[in-house]
Design brief:
Number of helices: 10
Strand order of the largest sheet: 5-4-3-6-7
Shape: globular
Number of strands: 7
Largest sheet: 5 strands, mixed
Radius of gyration: 19 Å
Strand content: 15-25%
Low-confidence stretches: 223-229
Order of helices and strands: HHHHEEHHHEEEEHHEH
CATH class of the largest domain: Alpha Beta
Mean pLDDT: 88
Structural class: alpha+beta
CATH architecture of the largest domain: 2-Layer Sandwich
Distance between the termini: 29 Å
């Protein structure tokens, strides 16, 4: 970390490490299971890979993360920062009431977050294929609609696909991207979005009823870091 405040104050010393651009988001990714470089990069899509490499090296030098096999993990000092990062998310949820603008909407980041938050019960016993059809994408996406697939199995890592994997789909979520993001953020209820028609769930009734238990569709995950866990 090149910048120094020139103060012995512990707040200043902590800020020298934690207040560099992107650092809290990089820590968020590692805290919530992104250990490999490419996985961390997917969680911070606007960050250059060169800068990510630099920030990870700086966090290593500060004793906050360490290399572990082919990836990274938190040290004891890094794990101690978890409540700090989570409180930042809580503070934003309670006190920053600005609405979402187009620059905040990112279906790729949203789906990457849902991928790691999806939890199937062990009794499912088979792979499930969930398709998400988003419309109302921002102009920067250069398309009006886009579909994503989650291939999930209770015993395996969930796979995210942007192209049709060729399997039968078990459940489809059709949603306006802004409305669905607001549901995840807890700014709009799932029931309200369903009633308004901006979110639709299509599939067997049992799967439709179970989906809110598998994904944070009631805003519960947003009570911590401002992104699904």
């Amino acid at each position: 970390m090149a910048k120094r405040y020139g103060q012995f104050c512990p707040v200043a010393m902590a800020a020298e490490v934690l207040c560099e651009r992107w650092v809290p988001l990089v820590l968020r990714e590692v805290m919530y299971g992104a250990t490999r470089f490419n996985d961390i990069a997917r969680g911070v899509p606007l960050m250059s890979r060169g800068l990510l490499t630099q920030r990870l090296r700086e966090l290593e030098d500060a004793g906050i993360v360490k290399k572990s096999g082919a990836g990274y993990q938190l040290t004891a000092a890094g794990e101690a920062l978890r409540p700090v990062i989570e409180e930042m998310g809580l503070w934003a949820q309670h006190f920053l009431k600005r609405g979402l603008n187009d620059a905040d909407l990112d279906d790729k980041l949203l789906m990457w977050s849902l991928r790691r938050s999806l939890r199937l019960p062990p009794d499912i016993g088979r792979r499930l294929v969930l398709r998400f059809d988003f419309h109302g994408l921002p102009r920067s996406a250069r398309v009006a609609r886009r579909s994503w697939w989650l291939l999930a199995h209770p015993a395996d890592e969930t796979e995210l696909c942007v192209k049709d994997p060729g399997y039968d789909t078990d459940l489809v979520v059709v949603a306006d991207l802004r409305a669905f993001t607001e549901v995840i953020l807890g700014r709009r209820t799932l029931l309200g979005a369903l009633r308004e028609g901006c979110v639709r769930l299509q599939g067997p009734a049992a799967l439709v009823r179970a989906l809110p238990r598998w994904l944070p569709l009631n805003g519960e995950a947003m009570q911590s870091m401002g992104i699904v866990r």
